[in-house]
Amino acid sequence: MKIAHISDIHFFVPTFKISHLFTNEWLGNLNVYYSRRNFFITENLDAFISSLLKEKIDVLVITGDFTSTANGKEFALAKQFIQKVLDSGIKVFGLPGNHDMYTKKSVKHRTFYHCLDNLPPFSHGHVHFETLTDSWNIILLDTTMHNKIGRANGHFTLDHEKTLRHLLEKSSNVIVANHFPLEDKSKSHHLIRDKHLHHLLKDSKKRVLYLHGHTHNTSYHQETDQFHVFNSSESTVTEKFHYHLIDLTKDHFSHKVVKYYE
Ligand SMILES: [Fe+2]
């Protein structure tokens, strides 16, 4: 089974309203206006879908930050994109990032889940479990929280930990997808209790592929024989345009980076 991993698409439709002054939305729109609009080229997503088909991808995993300020128009673009991939015959898994829970309103109304109702609904509250093959499962974590202006933290709670510990028991090989990295020294952007998640996965004795975004770069590293970390968070950044392709075999996997637009 072939998996493609991308993250941090950041669809954006700026809205400037007086009532947004000095709120997260105001900051997010300024951010988009002055920098992100030069970075994120969503038009190339058609080339991305062609590449998925050429590589015979079965499953696409998107680890959050579909939007920039969690407004309805941005979610509508994200939903359209997901639908295009689904219509190409590719299964899509997605979870929210901090930008998809950017405002108090979007957290309260769970806008991500209401708007992106063409993604599989979460099976265990803030955790989703699904079987991929006879030997591989996937677990998605929603570790988003409401943030004050200027912050972009996530939180791996005790509830997440309890559910994840139980679900890991069902798996010998598992993909664990979450928006946040396991090691981020920035106090304002890191995952709260990241060390607990890191130790749980690393010490689980399972083969774990940890997929994340958030940091706007691309990397792969192997921590142990069993524990591998993929970051695909510059998948749609200008002149980068690539994704991680992970080919799952019975008890192993191979991987490569695919460039989808020259
Ligand atoms: Fe993020």
Structure in words:
- This protein has 262 residues and is of the alpha/beta class.
- It has one domain: Purple Acid Phosphatase, chain A, domain 2.
- The chain is 26% helix and 24% strand.
- It is built from seven helices and 13 strands.
- The chain has helices at 24-34, 45-54, 72-87, 104-108, 111-115, 158-169, 194-202, and strands spanning 2-6, 59-62, 91-94, 127-131, 136-141, 154-155, 173-177, 191-192, 207-212, 218-222, 227-232, 242-248, 253-259.
- It has a six-stranded mixed sheet with strand order 4-5-7-9-11-10, covered by helices on one side. It has a five-stranded mixed sheet with strand order 3-2-1-12-13. Strands 6-8 form a two-stranded parallel ribbon.
- β4 and β5 (136-141) form a beta hairpin.
- The radius of gyration is 17 Å and the shape is globular.
- The structure holds fe (ii) ion.
The end-to-end span amounts to: 26 Å
Give the beta-strand count.
Answer: 13
Bound molecules: fe (ii) ion
CATH topology: Purple Acid Phosphatase, chain A, domain 2
Average pLDDT, rounded to a whole number, is 90
Number of helices: 7
Which architecture name does CATH use?
A: 4-Layer Sandwich
Which range best describes the helical content: under 10%, 10-25%, 25-40%, 40-55%, 55-70% or over 70%?
A: 25-40%
The CATH class designation is Alpha Beta
* Secondary-structure-derived class: alpha/beta
Q: Which features would summarize this protein structure in a list?
A:
single chain, 262 residues, alpha/beta, Purple Acid Phosphatase, chain A, domain 2, 6-stranded mixed sheet, 7 helices
